[in-house]
Amino acid sequence: MRFLVFLFFLILSISGFSQQKNAIKFNVAGPLTQTYSLQYERMLTNKISFNNTFFYRQKSLIPFGVAVDTLAKRYGVGLTGIKFKYIFMNEARVGVRGYAPELRFYLGNKKNRPFVALFGQYEDFDMAVPASLSVLYKGLIVDVKTPVNFTFNTLSGGLLIGKQWKWNRMGVDLVVIGPHFGKAKAFYAVAQTELLSKLSEDEKVYLKEKITERFGLSGEYFALDIAGEKAEIKSVKPVPYLGIRGLGVNLSYSF
Fold first, then answer.
1. Strands 230-235 and 239-254, how do they pair?
2. Which is nearest to 100 in space by CA: 124, 78, 71?
3. What percent of the chain has pLDDT over 90?
4. CA 206 to CA 137: how far, in whole Å?
5. What is the rounded CA–CA span in Å between residue 191 and residue 172?
6. How far does the chain reach from its first CA to its final CA, in angstroms?
7. Which residues contact 199 (CB under 8 A, 6 or more apart)?
8. Greater model confidence, 47 or 72
């Protein structure tokens, strides 16, 4: 009886392997950005699959920081509503982890074929970004550069396009681009410096006005408070969020 059960599961296993409905993928381009991702794909039909992406980046300096800082200062307001003139993205340390489920549609019947996908994405960010604060203290106005620690998570959805090449069990997925739009929640930012604890109430009011002005904070989405050595920014409701996913080169093995 045990032999028959073993034989039954062996036949199922061989059958599953021969159909190659499953694939495990690793993004070989990940080390360039220090963002590592692992995917599992399950074919539902010849042209439709369900793909799962898990990704992680340890908190560290971002690559191409100078270019990112230039782009943020030029286009940041249009994308996020936050002004980046006094934020230094070239010194930013960013960590992120997340999950992206994806319903993928392959175009055509060839082994090498393009695809489009509808996907959702959850991200959990942990960032430290230096910023310049304008502080009034004893009649003097000084710029104080201090690290600002951010934590927030996002939930978004979008459209992904790419192409797949297959050679027997091995293959490559090229993800071209995937814009996604949604909401950022649980946003919290804190700047801490001893100078803040020495400010008078009028000086705190000045600092609040300058933070709002410099960084373009909307009272609709954010609340600002200064207490002790800390200046804190919290979201009062979900904030619009736009992200871009793309340039993934995933090496795959099918079974």
1. unpaired
2. 124
3. 67
4. 10
5. 44
6. 28
7. 135, 136, 137, 207, 226
8. 47
Run of H or E including 122:
strand 113-137
Lowest-pLDDT choice from 8-22, 44-58, 66-80, 200-214: 8-22
Residue matched to tokens 């408070």: 225
Helix (H, G, I), strand (E, B) or coil at 45: coil
Beta strand 170-192 pairing with 230-235:
antiparallel
d(CA 136, CA 88): 21
Residue 239 Cα to chain centre, angstroms: 15
245, pLDDT greater than 90: no
Query: Side chain identity at 151, as an amino acid letter?
Result: T
- Written as six digits, the tokens of 244 are 């871009």
Instruction: Give, as one character, the DSSP assignment of residue 87.
Output: B
Reported pTM = 0.83
Distance in angstroms (rounded) separating the CA atoms of residues 122 and 152: 11
Higher pLDDT, 9 or 192: 192
**Has residue 117 got a pLDDT over 70?**
yes
Q: Who contacts 179 (Cβ-Cβ below 8 Å, separation ≥6)?
A: 158, 159, 242, 243, 244, 245
How do strand 230-235 and strand 222-227 relate by DSSP bridges? antiparallel
How far is it, in rounded angstroms, from Cα 240 to Cα 243? 10
Residue 154 has pLDDT above 70, yes or no: yes
